[in-house]
Every structure is written in C-alpha cells, then in structure tokens.
Design goal:
The complex is a heterodimer of chains A (230) and B (296). Chain A is mainly α and 230 residues long. Chain A has helices at 2-17, 20-53, 59-70, 74-85, 100-136, 141-151, 153-169, 172-178, 188-197, 201-229. In chain A, 80% of the residues lie in helices and 0% in strands. By secondary structure, chain B is of the alpha/beta class. In chain B, helix 8 (172-183) links the parallel strand 5 (164-166) and strand 6. Chain B starts with a helix and ends with a strand. Classes of the chains: A mainly alpha (230), B alpha/beta (296).
Chain lengths: 230, 296
C-alpha cells in the first residue's frame, strides 16, 4: 500500500516539477495516439458508414472478420508491423523502425477495425432512415453523407473516443515497434512497463496516475457530449 | 429467442472446448533434454515445494536455466518459478521479500545486499564475459583499432557518433556499461546513444536493426547469433569479466519465503555435479562453455 501512496505523492511532484523528460514522454504519448486516432478515423468512419448501408455478397463474413479484428491483441499487430518494417522486411527501405512513425502505423492498424466496427453498428441501426430522409428531401450523394455524419455524430464521437482510449493505453505494439528509446520513442505506457521491470514502483505508479488523469479528462468530455445529446 | 439459446450453447461449447484443450496442453510433459518422461512414478510433490528464483535476463535468454533446472526438479522434486529481470530489479525483489533466492551479476551490489541484511550469504557460482558486438562492416573501425581494448572501442563509437544501444534498465550489464563510460571519462549523450530499457535479447535485436553497437553478455549473444548480422568487435580483456553470484533471501522478511527450498537450491548449484553440468552447457551447439563454473 505504501508504494501506491508514495506514487500519489510522486505523481504530484512529477507534474509540478516541470521535468522536461516527463513532459516529453507525456507529449509523445499524446502525439502518437492523437495522430493515429485521427488518421484511422478519417478512413474508418466512411468505411463504417458504407458497410452499414451497402449489401453485397460475403458481407456476413466481412462483418465477422471485422468484429474479430476489433479485439486484435496489440502485441500481435506490433509483431506483424515490426516484421514488415524491419530491415529485412518488405518495407525496410523506409527505415522507420524504432521511430514514432512506426508507432503511429501500428496503432492505426489496431484502431481502424475498432472505429469501423462501432460506426458500422450505429449506421446499421439508423442509417437507412437517415438516407431515405435525405433522398426525399432531394439531397445528392455528398449531402446524404454529410447528413449521415451529422445524424450519427454521437456514435462517431464514441467510436473516436474509444479508439483514442485504446491507443493511449496500449503498450504491446508501441513497445515492439518503438523500442522504448529514451527521448525518441518512450511513451507513458512503455515507461511504466520499464520502471516496473526495474523495480522503481513509485515512479511507475506516478506515471500511471498521470495516464489515469488523462483518461478521466477524456471520459468526462465524452460523458458531457453524450449527456448533451439525450 | 431460439436463436439466442443457440448462440448461448455455441458459446458454452466453445468454452468447454477451450477448457479441454488447456487441460490437454497442461498435462503434456515437456520433453526437455535430460527430462525423462516417466509419468505416474513421480512422487506427490509437497504443497510448499515451489521456489521463486529471481535472476537476470541473460541466464534465461541464453537457455542455461532450461538446461539445468529440469535436473534440479528431478533430484529434489522442487518446482522453480523463474522470474527473469534485470539485476537491479532482482535485488529489489529480494529486498521486498518477493523471491526466495537470487542468481545475479553485480558483485558490489550483491555484497551490499547481504551487508544490509536482505540476504543470508553470497556465493560465487560461475562467470562469463561481456563482448562488444556491432555491424559486420564495422563503421567505427573497432575490429582493427581496438579488438581487445573496450575503453578505446567506446571512444571510437563516441567520436564517430555511431549508434550505440544501451540496456538502460539498471541491469548488471547496464551497470557494467556505465562503469566503462565513466572509466573512459565519457558521458554518452546525443542521438547516437539509444537507451532502450529492455532485456538483453531485445537490445541485441535493436542494435542489429539500427546498425549499431551494444555491450552484451557472450551467452545471450551466442544464443541469438544466427538471427542477427552482428559480429564481435571487442572481446577478451579483464574489464569484461562477469561474475554471477547466488544469494538466499533473508527469511525474516515475511513468512512466505521458502528458506528450506532456497537453501537446497544454493547447495545444489554449488555442488560439483551441477558445476560440471554448467560447464557442459553450450558445448554441443557452440563448441564452447557459455558459463564457466567457479564455486569455491
């Protein structure tokens, strides 16, 4: 128990000390997870809506695969991405191994199915209605899409926040493709894993608390939006 | 509703299948070399016959423990749970009373550990050596200029700003590396010095990926040599000597420490037969001993 108490005190000291290294770690965490969420969302939202509205042969299988991919273990994604971008891999020429770019790439692979799946579910339930409404009002394809996004905004927002939550708290993939290099690819989660392996529990707890605080802030925003809608 | 119950039964049967599979999996005895598959004749193992051994990543990554522990189990019936971490963390686990026995390599820290009353007594077990490994084309030119001078090799790396991957995890190897920088009056800093905070195997792989150098223990390097393009550039000097010690944790820490088993382990690893076994490890595959036993 004393470690947790020490950790609480440590978290406060960390945040108030303005230690450059700690802030670099927090900022890199935010940069990697926000960028990957944004890029994944740009592709996943249209995909989810499209899947929710279109019927085509083999859709059932696609959906099953999508649901399976929603719970892909990040470690597996990290491993596959690592093999692709390692020097001997097909994308080795890019030389992005052990860089933040590689971490973003791996997280996009994790988030894409999650965001697609959640948006698909929302569209499946209300998409047809909205589409019909748009058509009766004489909207063209683009206007229908904009109307859809507007009508499904809460669902889309939930998808983005869920994705972001997964990204910022994920450790397996970023550890593998980022390598936890001090000052280059060290983020909050990999720092916690490393400190734990070094037996520095108080500092690990402190950074864990910072991570929890961030999660709390984000969830508060989500809750606020959801309340605002109902 | 019918569909729902169908689904339920599907899920249930899947769970059952998983259970059966895991049961099958766990009842399979591992077929390690030297591990005879004699089911049914093993005596019932007593409840408290499990031992927690905190050790370094090198003893596990190199395969030494997989090689000697089945023999320990066979002779004593004691199940050993291995926690492979850096030396710093292993000592911390000892201090916290989370391990029964330690097998680590940082002599000064180990002696301090015993002095402070965390452990009963420290014994030499074996040694191996550290080596500097780097890319085949050796951009820092160490193989020609410093094949047996580790300080000079470090100077060359710093001068040429070649990538160097550090363990950065407070392990025995990391402590050794920091001492070497200090001895050469250098402070490694800059984009070329990459502190990874990971185990030995990971760090060797990273150095390979990044075309860099790293300080490794010979055993771990040899065990993954075939997977990487790294070669030994500096070896065989006194500073790179790496002594391992065994310490039984002080049982007064808490009542869960298995002192009896820890003592059995210490006596066993120091015994002539086990020392012989350690010296044989690696002979078949690498034509050399990876660890040289030197118990007094």
């Amino acid at each position: 128990m004393s470690e947790i108490w020490m950790g609480l005190k440590g978290a406060l000291t960390l945040l108030t000390s303005l230690n450059r290294e700690v802030y670099d770690i927090i900022l890199l965490s935010l940069y990697v997870s926000l960028t990957s969420t944004l890029i994944a969302a740009l592709g996943a939202i249209p995909s989810g809506i499209w899947l929710g509205l279109k019927d085509f042969p083999g859709k059932k299988i696609i959906i099953r695969i999508l649901y399976t991919f929603m719970s892909l273990p990040p470690v597996v994604v990290g491993l596959v991405v690592f093999l692709f971008i390692s020097r001997k891999g097909p994308l080795g020429f890019l030389e992005i191994n052990f860089t933040p770019t590689a971490m973003i790439l791996a997280q996009i692979c994790i988030l894409f199915p999650i965001i697609t799946g959640i948006v698909f579910n929302g569209t499946k339930e209300r998409g047809e209605q909205v589409k019909l409404l748009g058509k009766t009002l004489g909207a063209n394809r683009w206007q229908v899409l904009i109307l859809l996004i507007h009508e499904l905004r809460v669902n889309i927002f939930t998808a983005i926040i869920t994705g972001y939550g997964r990204a910022v708290s994920e450790v397996g993939a970023v550890m593998i493709v980022g390598g936890n290099i001090k000052g280059h690819t060290r983020v909050m989660t990999t720092t916690i894993a490393m400190l734990q392996s070094m037996g520095q529990y108080d500092l690990a707890i402190a950074i864990g608390i910072v991570l929890l605080l961030l999660a709390f802030i984000i969830n508060s925003i989500l809750y606020h939006f959801q309340q605002g809608d109902s | 509703m019918k569909g729902f119950s169908k689904q339920k039964s599907l899920v249930l049967s899947l769970c059952l299948l998983l259970l059966v599979l895991t049961a099958c999996g766990s009842s399979n005895t591992s077929s390690e070399p030297g591990d005879q598959q004699n089911q049914g004749n093993s005596a019932p193992v007593a409840e408290n016959k499990s031992l927690i051994l905190a050790t370094t990543t090198s003893t596990e990554n190199s395969g030494l423990l997989d090689y000697i522990l089945p023999v320990f189990k066979e002779e004593t019936g004691i199940d050993t749970k291995v926690v492979a971490v850096g030396t710093g963390k292993a000592l911390q686990m000892g201090m916290d009373g989370e391990a029964d026995v330690l097998l680590v390599h940082a002599k000064a820290d180990e002696e301090k550990f015993v002095q402070e009353g965390h452990g009963i007594e420290r014994f030499d077990v074996m040694y191996n050596d550290f080596i500097l490994v780097g890319p085949k084309d050796d951009p820092a030119g160490i193989k020609t200029n410093a094949p047996q001078d580790i300080i000079k090799a470090f100077e060359l790396i710093e001068e040429k700003q070649e990538n160097f991957v550090s363990r950065g995890d407070d392990s025995g190897t990391h402590k050794m590396e920091l001492n070497l920088w200090a001895e050469g009056n250098m402070e490694p800093q800059g984009d070329w010095y990459l502190s990874a905070g990971k185990g030995m195997g990971d760090v060797i792989m990273m150095a390979d990926e990044l075309n860099g150098y790293t300080l490794a223990d010979r055993a771990t390097y040899l065990s993954i040599k075939d997977k990487v393009d790294l070669v030994i550039v500096t070896e065989g000097e006194g500073r790179l000597f790496n002594q391992y010690g065994v310490i039984a944790v002080n049982p007064e820490k808490n009542d869960q420490i298995n002192q009896a088993a820890a003592q059995v382990f210490v006596d066993w690893i120091l015994s002539a037969e086990t020392q012989q076994l350690i010296s044989k490890f690696g002979m078949e595959e690498y034509k050399q001993s990876l660890f040289i036993p030197n118990a007094q």
